Amino acid sequence: MGLLRDLLRRDADLPPRDTPPGAGDSRITGGARYAGRSGGPTFGIASAERDIRPREFSSRFIALLVLSFVQLGTVDKLGWHGFGLAAGIISVLCVLGWAAWVLGWALPWRYSPHLALTGLLVMGTCGAALTGLLKDTGVAPVFPAIACVVISTRWPAGRAALVVGWFELALLVCAATQGWHQFATNGLGYGGLLAGMYGLGVGRRSYILRAESAEALVKETERANHEEAHAAALAERSRIAREIHDVLAHSLAALTVQLEAADALLDSGAEPGVVKAHDYVKKSRRIAREGLIETRRAIAALREDSPPLPELLYALADAYHADTGADAEVEVEGLPRPLKADAGLTVYRAAQESLTNVRKHAPGAPVWLTMVFGEEELVLTIANGAPTEPPSELAESGGGYGLAGLKERAELIGGSLEAGPRAAGENEGDGKDADEDSDGGWQVTLRLRG
Q: How far is CA 114 from CA 29, 42, 44, 187, in A?
């Protein structure tokens, strides 16, 4: 019985553990498919594409030899004539059926599935008949028991029940021919054993299917987590690239203009030009220093430890006033609240880019920065008045993609950005009426949810 228990535990009969349900070996699902180069249908019993394990193969043949020796020894007691000869022939058929099952399981041959199926049917039927006929059954019940477990594990419960029912019928009919006592002991007793083996196989099949489904679910979850992590990494890389691009584009463009202006003044050779060139060089140094500060600020924002937005707006306004001498006012309405890192950076970049555009296209113009914290929306407005100085070389710098980039950045986080002419008199106060037809400067409005 220990050998029988060892055979029932063998994993060699099961589908490979790395085969997902419904694919590869179809022995569990019971579907007929064509396997590999052999092209033979598996009929839910064997596959030509299995990993043939020498240990399991040899153990099954050793079991066959042991069973053969014990069973033939039992039949030998009856003599090799009459009933004993018939029992011997049936025993030989049981042994041949076992051998066909093992060979069909192991050999990569086109007809191996047919051979394995035939072997199981033969050893199950002959073993059941032999169990019903013999009073001293010996190891005869092992043959139908193994066939019941294998078939009910490999096939769906309904189809396997038909085969097991056939074995039960053969057992009961043969036992009935030997009298009521034989029918009650061997027939009903071993009939219950075969029914138990059928239940064991069905339970084993259910366990295997659940294990395969759970394994497939785990693999699918791991694959989805990997893809999600990969997408998050790509999004973070894009975000970092945008921040670095904005910092470098803003600082380097301003540096280029200042240095070109200083170079032109030095080429003129005039004394006032040298003084102004010196001023441009000092501005370039300040811009480079501010560029480093901006880089650190972008990194801090990516780490989500940046200063509050109102402080950043006041710093931008102070820098604009120190650089141009023009008025810069900041107004904050509502209760300030922390924003997500990408939302805070978008607000800061919108204010920074707008002030840069004012420097380029409206030199000396006053600016008004208004931030409104609503219940469900944040609105930032950057407006400037008419220029008070003629355009400088700075107006020719840049590629014209600043506002387009800001609009794209806002849309990525569910916001919007609008830019257009501003009516004169807006934000200026003092009770002055606005002249809608006059050139009143420019206005940028950023709206973000949250």
A: 17, 8, 10, 30
Cα 272 from Cα 281, distance rounded (Å): 14
- Domain boundary among the residues 225, 255, 287 is at 225
The tokens for 108 are 């990569």
Last residue of a domain, one of 192, 225, 258: 225
pLDDT at 89: 84
Cα–chain center distance at 168: 49
* Domain range enclosing 343: 308-450
Same domain, 79 and 192: yes
Q: Does 213 lie in the same domain as 74?
A: yes
**Percentage of residues in the chain having pLDDT higher than 90:** 13
Q: Is residue 183 part of a domain?
A: yes
CA distances from 174 to 88, 152, 167, 392, 394 (A): 15, 23, 11, 112, 107
Asked if residue 158 belongs to a domain, the reply is yes
d(CA 75, CA 246): 94
- One-letter amino acid at 330 equals V
In the structure encoding, which two tokens stand for residue 423, read together? Answer: 């009516």
The pLDDT score that the predictor gives to residue 48 is 34
CA distance 239 to 252: 20
Cα Rg, the chain, nearest whole Å: 44
Global pTM reads: 0.44
Plot region of 24 (φ>0 → left; ψ -120 to 50 → alpha; else → beta): left
Structure tokens at 361: 């296209």
Residues 30 and 131 in one domain: yes
CATH code at position 352 = 3.30.565.10
In the chain, which stretches have pLDDT less than 50?
1-52, 429-438
